[in-house]
Amino acid sequence: MGKCTPEGRELRSHLKEGIEENCAKCTPAQRSGTRRVLAHLINHEPDYWNQLKAKYDSTGKHSAQYERELRQH
Question: Which PANTHER family does the entry mention (predicted)?
């Protein structure tokens, strides 16, 4: 992977908190962007999604919710 954009760095700096708290402190634009990124990872980049889960939600407590909501059928 290449270097993160400024937006990507910002997202990464708040990722753990956002996952654990369902982006409760996010602005509407941040929430929308986060959900879009997570949906892309879940549906098109399963290796990266699994790495993210392992790092930020190893128990699967929070990531299962995102998978239910954002997985394409």
Answer: CHEMOSENSORY PROTEIN-RELATED (PTHR11257), EJACULATORY BULB-SPECIFIC PROTEIN 3-RELATED (PTHR11257:SF12)
